[in-house]
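If you are new to this repository, start here. Below is one unmodified record pulled from the training split, so you can see the exact layout before writing a loader.
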Amino acid sequence: MKTNIEQARERMKACGFKMTPKRLDLLSYLFEVNRYVSAREVAEALRTSHPSLSYDTIYRNLNDFSEIDLLEVTELDGEMKYRAACASGHHHHHLICRICGKTETLNVCPMEWISPAQETGFEVEDHKFEIYGRCANCQRLTS
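And here is the target side for that same chain:
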């Protein structure tokens, strides 16, 4: 079975990207934390190993990786957050903690109960369903 990094390397190569040491460290960090993080958090995590890594480079790579489906993106409190794409291989949605960015898989799709095409003639091509709140751990910490 291939590791996340091996799969990412293959996807990047297929999409015309090289796996540089900075990109490897960026992806390794995202696979390790397995939660939504901001570009600023990525920069802070990589500051020791790559002190000259600019925010522009981080943003560009995060956006490139999201476009080739290595990362998932969401907006939390007006800021873009990124996480390693789920490797589950099945359609699902997420519960997302606003405090720590942790995600939980929601194995039900509300689109099963919504049929806009019947009422409006609208053809759904894609959708994203996220529920925001506080995970059990953050509830304990903020109580």
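Two things worth knowing about this chain: The chain has six helices and five strands. The CA atoms of residues 94 and 105 lie 5 Å apart.
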